[in-house]
């Protein structure tokens, strides 16, 4: 059936299209003018609504930024009281915090993209959670709920929404187990550290859960206090030498061997290596580090050095290097 398409757009944004069905096959000049006027009116309505949404979003973001910066209990309680007046949170709510870097590929207003992400999150779950986003790099997501709902479910929801909104699967750090909303600043710190660990491949999944990262958490706190630039001095010289020689194959072999507690069978299976090849590499590693790989203290020092090297940005394992 014949139809007329009228683009609905402002100077900076395209909202969509207004389609006019023309049963008679043609539209008079007066009819075209009416259609264009209707498109302009619709644009004005949507533009005003968009401006109102952005203003409200800006006010909410200001409150949320104060919340994640409120270290003192009194300050946090005061911010929560303001959130309550806006029906954004209740004093007994709990919160989970997520952080990720959206990347610079998309030429989209980060605030608009953040708002779209929040709307997608809200549509993907029931009303037991309220979702808030803070635009930027990293982008911050807060999941607010009336009770301690499953953290794994929230993590899966966030991962799917980020993938759908940004067309990518960036590493995501989360504070893990829900915290009282007055401890949102703690959750923000934990999710920031978890993101750092996720970006160096410390977690086994896309979303690195701070409460499940084990000994990596201690190293993350050390790295933050000590500074990445100074971590270089703490790395075993044998590990530094292998990094400088670009022997990622030996580094990955060592890391896998240590993670498996020195079990040759499990290491060879995980790396898809013949045992003779693995033994050859272990001999090379023994020479490189100048120590006995069967010694517990040596193993601990080497594992610690490999992880410190990751935190310092010296080494990032590539799963294709076997």
Automatic annotation (TrEMBL):
Among Pfam families, the record links this protein to:
HTH_30
Q: Which InterPro entries match?
A: CdaR-like_regulators, PucR_C-HTH_dom, PucR_C-HTH_sf
Lineage: superkingdom: Bacteria
The PucR C-terminal helix-turn-helix domain covers 250-308
Q: What is this protein called?
A: Sugar diacid utilization regulator
